[in-house]
Amino acid sequence: MKKLRVKFLLFVYNKTQKLYRKYFKKKKRQWQFNEKQLLEFHKDSLGRKLGEFYKKHGFTMIPKMENHDVHHLITDCGTQFEDEIAMQFLLLGNGKLNAHLLAAIVLGSIILPEYYKIYINAYRKGQSMRTFHHIDFEELLWQNFDNLKNFLKQKETPVLF
Fold first, then answer.
1. DSSP character for 74?
2. Could you give the CA distance from residue 61 to residue 63 in angstroms, rounded to a whole number?
3. What would the mean pLDDT of 30-59 be, rounded to a whole number?
4. What is the mean pLDDT of residues 128-144?
5. DSSP class of residue 137?
6. Cα–Cα distance for residue pair 1/41, rounded to 1 Å
7. Helix locations, the chain, DSSP H
8. CA–CA dist 110, 119 (Å, integer)
């Protein structure tokens, strides 16, 4: 039964993904690197880790959606469908808000409710991290991956004078 529900969600995702890129990402440009070029970055860099992520999972870059794949790396969210929904909850907790994200959360919660605890934990994790959903990670591909990940995992602390 779960397979059928996931198939339905994949169908919906495939139908809406191009629309999402067209209407929500119209000002964004695709990255200037491909999967092979990412593998040429220094071994400890974000770029290299992203290239290895694509190679490991057999994925190709989707234009204007590259940051989403970085989000998988820095949050340790998997790539199963329930993990994708959890990622949307995490991003909501991190402050991101748009119609596509809300639709994914509502539909995912209705279709795969057995992962509700995972979704709530992901939301809380997003709240506990520095705000990152707005960052253009293409500019940070040369940065040390572990340092960047550790920095983003720390909640911003207010400075009192």
1. H
2. 6
3. 97
4. 97
5. G
6. 43
7. 2-24, 35-38, 46-57, 66-75, 81-93, 99-111, 116-128, 145-153
8. 12
